[in-house]
Design brief:
By secondary structure, the chain is of the alpha/beta class. The protein has helices spanning about 15-25, 45-55, 65-75, 100-110, 180-185, 195-205, 235-250, 255-275, 280-295, 300-310, 325-330; strands at about 5-10, 35-40, 60, 85-90, 90-95, 110-120, 135-140, 145, 150, 155, 165, 175-180, 210-220, 320. α7 (about 235-250) runs antiparallel to α8.
Length: about 350
Amino acid sequence: MNKTAVVILNWNGRDFLEKFLPSLLCNNSENQADIYVADNGSTDDSVDFLKKNFPDVKVIQLSENYGFAGGYNKALAQISDYRYFVLLNSDVELTQNWLQPLTEYLDTHEDTAAVQPKILSFSNKNKFEYAGAAGGFIDKWGFPFCRGRIFGTVETDNAQYNNILDVFWATGACLVIRAADYWAVGGLDDDFFAHQEEIDLCWRLKARGKKITCVPQSIVYHLGGGTLTSENPKKTYLNFRNNLLLLYKNLPDNRLRKTLFVRFFFDYLAAFQFVISGKWKNAKQIFYARRDFCKIKNRFLQKRKENLKETVIENIPEIFPQSIVFQYYLKNKKYFQNYNYKTK
């Protein structure tokens, strides 16, 4: 058995499988990895299509749509003997030798729990891809951003981020993670369903002293927005609700109250921006997200207690100690290279 399992979570993505799965098979040199598609209760003909056209791909059939987090947890539990899991979106084009630099880095860096490649846009291959780019970070108020993408500014790839760098979070679009570390922190949080669950997972790993790293010697191309587009109100809802949940779950006591207080104003400012842009449905979803967070946060109290109990590093160096919103909009710092992050 190989040490690595590549697992694509599929939900009604037959067209993506047809378009992108061949690039994975063609670039699985010497069968470095076993390839699985975990079907999340699809209602299209995804499973029949796979069995007919890709008989060498192993299929894990789930009974319903458990979301990104729950679907991966249930699928990976069935193949728990691998050393490394690769969580791979169905709309990712792989390149020659994409996997080897990632697994080799994990082989030689025992303190690193997970790695990601450099992720470029499938639609414009000179640009970074929005959801991941060259590694993820978060600011003091919980706003995620990437090396190569801050808010709506997506940079052109000019090899400016080709250095290996420890990051705060690695994207779930192409995440290579030690199976032992994945399960040690409980895997992805099913209650997130989708969006920002990988940031929550990486935060738990970082707090326990593990490293997350971008290895840009590996390059993949991600289409993005395959399930929910960036303008979809449901995506707005999940992003805002889940961002508050990950703050509640992971922030130490001495920072939580102030952070949630400040976020109250930031979130309603974001809602106002949606209103003046004519995106009323998105604005409403921010109100719903905050309302539902207040309703359900007590359900996460035990998870919070467990996280804080296991925390060995409170001041994680990859958390940007200022407001990325202030720096981006008021100081016009649009590019990651404008910020002072140490490289290695």
